[in-house]
Amino acid sequence: MDKSVMYKIFSDPVHGFISIPKGPILRLIDHPWFQRLRRIRQLGLGYLVFPGAEHSRFSHALGAMGVMQRVLQSLQEKDTTITYGEYESTLMAILLHDIGHGPFSHTLETNIIRDFNHEMMTLKLMERLNTEMDGALDMAIEIFTDQYPKHFLHQLVSSQLDIDRLDYLKRDSNYTGVYEGSIGIDRLIKTMRVHKGNIVIEQKGIYAVENYIIARRLMYMQVYLHKTVLSADKLMHAIFRRVRHLIAEGESLHQPSPSLRYFLESYPSAKNELSDTLIKHYTMIDDDDVLLSIKYWQFEKDPILQDLCRRFLNRHLPRTTFLKQKPTAAYKEKMKQKTTRFLEDCGLPSNDDALSYYLHFDQNYSEAYKYQQESIWILNDEGVAVEFSKAADTKNIIALTEPVVKHYVVHPKECDG
Fold first, then answer.
1. Would you say residue 363 lies in a domain?
2. Environment class of 248 (CB within 10 Å of its CB; exposed 0-12, middle 13-18, buried 19+)
3. Is residue 186 part of a domain?
4. How far apart are CA 36 and CA 53, in angstroms?
5. Which terminal residue of the chain, N or C, has fewer Cβ atoms less than 10 Å from its own Cβ?
6. pTM
7. CATH code of 75's domain
8. Domain annotation covers residue 271
9. 23 pLDDT band (50/70/90 cuts)?
10. Beta strands in 94-236 (DSSP E)
11. In a domain, 173, yes or no
């Protein structure tokens, strides 16, 4: 840290005071694209399940940057050479790592742009900010894309044990009240070091890593893939699909924000290039655009859109039923018949097209620790780095390396049984 740099203080409920260096970093925080993250919920539709989960991508990004400051300072104390330029650029990389998120974070990621993920937009926005700031983000982009010679700086931004995860696990656990997801950040930070150009954890931090992996598994099961979150996601996807269908049919719907309407009418693809027009409209939309539109769409004449919107607004969500195995054709047919009867009883259309908005078969996939892609390394007492699952003395860690696949069906609650 450069002692000659002036700082602005932010008070964070998870990590305490965070010191923001004045200059390029504060300029990024003040940019409209970053301020937009205040209006995007970190957990998407998780607030419909956990009343306290109203925190934003903005607070997560600031929190991650605060944790990154502590990590870099700790590494410097352990004789790792980090210049102020590298320090500042790594902070910018973690600060901007989520700037490409759209409304409700992951919920609508592929429902407004085809062939898309938010990392694509993040990099594009970083490049444009770099142009605006006369190359101030050159090194930050190299770190973000793993093009910078010091690979460990990229690992801190994106890896199996990165700063993004350290913040969101602690933050999401705090705001949902799911304290099984809480992790020992302080011990992880103090036991991190650089060994042969890579981030490793000292032997005395092995149990903090074990807690981190178990906490991540529990948060996926209890929060990120919670059955009611899955059902709320499917309901919102159905609303957007219905709106796109009606617009394509020439229906005159309530005018949402011009930028949201652009995506509903054109449903662009990101396969070739993120155009200037797409980026302009994307950086104008957030959760508020979606919620306001759904409030008006509940009064449209189309009965299916009316019903879907009212169910969302009044939290009359469908039910998610987890299945022990992949659903059979017979089970699918049974659920189809039940849902058809439900729609008929409600006076709604009950053809196959209508049915597709109310009945969904899907599966979720989670891995707490993907050791085959990029491992967590433990530096043992002999100074040798050992892959974590081999260094741990508990068999449950091996089990946590196995992916978990769960089949499920989302259906109206009236179709239970």
1. no
2. exposed
3. yes
4. 18
5. C
6. 0.94
7. 1.10.3210.10
8. no
9. very high
10. 192-195, 198-202
11. yes
